[in-house]
């Protein structure tokens, strides 16, 4: 995010950040309307602050949009499961229900079976994700409140919900994770094929699974797994929301975990497999002579946002994560641990990104580039 200017209000809030047991109430402009929220100021920079509210949302507020702020004694606590459930039901359109799993609140107006299918998919991903990092010496933490997924019955209703954050592009995106709300949103991918039965029997769920296990659905399921992986990374302590997260790390990791495994009811075997959707593109790019692919990935986040370079950037981000996790697992995990200590709003100069990567992984980027290209070109 780019906060533009400073104001005296921000300076007042500097002392806010240091205080422990307090409740901050800020009035600010958001989407052209004035709003007041209470929570905890978790970061402040020259150009604004971030307010975390008990529902798990984070509000990046530009200094220019801050109208007033006050701090009172209080104890910031995230909403517990019951209170969060009530808030979600009050906020979502009529007709929504909530399916509760060990780590998730699945909010749905789909069939019950579809919500159960999502809950089971996400719990298996959760287990796979935590175990994967544990085996590599990265201890994650339990999320501070249940993770929220909002599942719509159809694409139109989902796009209407996503419009505030994504604009009209919501309609062309299958699902997304919002750093602002901390929720993932998606819709029923079975479409017209869906078993519209309201039951949640094993037979109903198995029917959904068999529809989505078809090869033509692989990409759709991969996308919702990808978005759920972002949510896990930001809630289990691997990454910090609204901090300087190099995009190649965030996106490459999400792709690394996205290979769906719908064949098993317990484990998740897809983690760390060669990503068949991205490999051909990655191979083409590493075999094209010239350029410093790695150095470019480390410093240039914009290539992920521009339509003409995004597909290449995603493929390379996957390839570099894959390569580092296979070839330099310890060094890369230490680099990730270092990134996980970042503070929101800290925006280091791009050269710093190169230097810290060199410190944790290898100082010789030229040799690394040559080995990376050879490794990816040789993947089958
Ligand atoms: Zn992503």
UniProtKB/TrEMBL annotation:
Signal peptide: 1-21
Pfam families, alphabetized: DUF1570 (PF07607)
Domain DUF1570 as annotated: residue spans: 221-345
Superkingdom: Bacteria
Assigned keywords, A-Z: Signal
Record's protein name: DUF1570 domain-containing protein
Native source organism of the sequence: Blastopirellula marina
Lineage: Bacteria, Pseudomonadati, Planctomycetota, Planctomycetia, Pirellulales
């Amino acid at each position: 995010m780019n906060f533009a200017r400073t104001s005296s209000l921000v300076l007042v809030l500097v002392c806010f950040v240091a205080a422990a047991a307090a409740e901050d109430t800020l009035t600010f402009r958001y989407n052209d309307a004035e709003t007041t929220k209470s929570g905890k100021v978790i970061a402040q920079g020259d150009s604004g602050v971030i307010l975390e509210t008990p529902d798990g949302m984070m509000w990046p507020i530009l200094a220019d949009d801050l109208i007033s702020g006050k701090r009172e004694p209080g104890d910031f606590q995230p909403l517990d499961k019951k209170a969060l459930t009530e808030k979600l039901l009050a906020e979502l359109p009529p007709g929504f229900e909530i399916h509760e799993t060990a780590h998730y609140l699945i909010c749905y107006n789909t069939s019950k079976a579809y919500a159960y299918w999502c809950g089971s998919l996400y719990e298996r991903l959760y287990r796979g994700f935590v175990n994967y990092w544990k085996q590599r010496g990265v201890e994650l933490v339990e999320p501070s409140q249940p993770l929220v997924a909002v599942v719509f019955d159809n694409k139109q209703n989902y796009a209407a919900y996503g419009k505030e954050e994504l604009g009209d592009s919501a309609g062309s995106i299958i699902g997304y994770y919002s750093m602002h709300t901390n929720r993932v949103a998606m819709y029923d991918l079975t479409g017209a094929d869906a078993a519209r039965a309201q039951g949640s029997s094993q037979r109903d769920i198995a029917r959904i699974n068999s529809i989505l296990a078809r090869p033509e659905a692989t990409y759709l399921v991969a996308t919702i797994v990808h978005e759920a992986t972002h949510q896990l990374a930001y809630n289990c302590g691997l990454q910090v929301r609204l901090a300087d997260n190099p995009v190649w790390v965030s996106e490459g990791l999400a792709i690394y975990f996205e290979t769906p495994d719908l064949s098993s009811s317990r484990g998740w075997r897809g983690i760390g497999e060669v990503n068949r959707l991205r490999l051909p593109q990655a191979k083409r790019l590493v075999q094209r002579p010239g350029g410093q692919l790695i150095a470019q990935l480390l410093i240039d986040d914009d290539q992920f946002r521009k339509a003409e370079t995004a597909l290449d950037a995603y493929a390379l981000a996957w390839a570099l994560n894959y390569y580092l996790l296979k070839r330099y697992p310890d060094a890369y995990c230490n680099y990730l641990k270092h990134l996980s200590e970042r503070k929101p709003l800290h925006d280091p100069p791009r050269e710093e990104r190169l230097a810290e990567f060199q410190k944790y992984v290898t100082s010789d980027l030229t040799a690394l580039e040559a080995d990376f290209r050879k490794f990816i070109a040789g993947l089958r």
